[in-house]
Amino acid sequence: EGLLDTQRLARAMQGPGVTIPGDKKLRVGVIGCGLAGMVTAMDLSEAGHEVHMFDARRQVGGKVGSWVDKDGNHIEMGLHVFFGCYYNLFGIMQRVDAFKNLRLKSHEHTFVNRGGTLGSLDFRMGGIGAPINGLKAFATTKQLNLADKFYNAVALATSPVVKALLNFDAAMDDVRALDNKSFSDWFIGQGGSRGSIERMWDPIAYALGFIDCDNISARCMLTIFQLFAVRSEASVLRMLEGSPQDYLHDPILAYLSERGVSVSLSSRATELLYDKDPATGLPSRVRGFTSSDGQKHEFDVVVAALDVPGIKKLLPEEFRQVDMFDKVYELKAVPVTTVQLRFNGWVTEMQDPEAMRDVSGDKSDGRAPGLDNLLYSADAEFSCFADLALTSPGSFYKPGEGSLMQCVMTPGDKWMPRSTQEIADACLEQVRELFPSAKGLECTWSNVVKLGESLYREEPGADPYRPSQATPVPNFFLAGSYTYQDYIDSMEGATKSGLKCADAILERTEELQQYRSGSPAEQQAAAAKGAESAATA
């Protein structure tokens, strides 16, 4: 799929480059208004198809959704960070004029340890890029002791990462072949140490897939390592100016509106309407679906742009006779809990007590003190976190108030049965253990969002169960980061799946004409169905 191909950015930015004649226009129903669904709709509507979107939630964005509560607080489904290798997503953002809404962070990955000590992977090297700056980052980090650095170097030196420097695509073949191994099994088998996993790689694995190195596929972790080793920009982090709704989704919705796309929220697709092949009894065509308000919606083409639990609920039992659909039920999703804590001072400012307590004046636009970046920790039950009032002040800074710590509690299983207050209290206690200098600050507000099923679980052996975007039912397509695309479950993965889904439909526009309302094939099928009903009667 060209993970290294920066031309994918240009393709995503410019659109599909295809214009459908008016007499070939298809009515497309997209179930799901997450990134994958919206990107699919962008390309299809840009090409000239008629697109209608539906979502069960009250807001778009799926797992990247955000909203404002009754008191004006911006709430997020999770913590969202943009890696420099998000070429497809960056292209989409440039197309809708949203790339300017990203705030570039210092080129380092910072670990906060108990007591406030810091470790980091510092990739800054005066303009010298990959792989040299990566070697320097690992050699100089204080997050690992000398022995763990040595064992870490041994494991990575014998990994496909080295091969990627010479032949990236061949190295990616090697990485894919490691999907059936956990990262821990692979890493320790290559000479790596348990200390490296516990102090560095577990927090990163939790941040990527919400599961630890013992449970995450080596393919998932090594895919990221490959990119970091070969492309200097891949390890650079950005965060949105503010909430995803304001700074990402609204520009996409404006683009869709300009191209006539309708968006129906609080409208859950409850049942697919489909035909079966009389000879085999297998589904042969999806005609549309019924929504939660009882309405029937008929389309020439239907796209299910859902997550793993969503697609499992939507697919009728009869679809499981088809191998591709049946395999979807082998995929699992992981739980995650996101906690927001507001303070009356700046939690991550550990050097200047006076500055830490100063919330006077205008502290917007990054003027507040503290750590302005994504943060990791091996000593807390939140794998990654950030002070959104500092990193994304457009929506999350409030005059006269301080830090808004957003912490991702992983693994999430432990927290699902707990009350939101219990979770917030546990998170607050651990924040204070990481930042003892902030123990005197008061937590003035908290919020907890629990998702029982979030990202698909990128465990060893899961890759073969991921479906393609085109399915054996000719006019039924899938999108979502769990569908097959050569990246991990992420915003970039969702974007890639949406682009691949749109391409699959556009490539098949001619053969999909038989499913158009009013087409000769459609009329013939309707007549046959009427005759069958009459015979049955």
- In this structure, how is the largest beta sheet organized? 7 strands, mixed
Percent of residues in beta strands?
Answer: 15-25%
Mean pLDDT reading: 94
What is the approximate shape? globular
Lateral arrangement of strands in the main beta sheet:
8-7-16-17-18-15-19
User: Radius of gyration from the CA trace?
Assistant: 24 Å
Return residue spans where pLDDT drops below 50 for at least 5 consecutive residues: none
Alpha-beta classification: alpha/beta
**Total number of strands:** 20
Quaternary form: single chain
Q: Approximately how much helix is present in the residues?
A: 25-40%
Helix run count? 19
Distance between the termini: 52 Å
3D architecture notes:
The protein has 19 helices and 20 strands. By secondary structure, it is of the alpha/beta class.
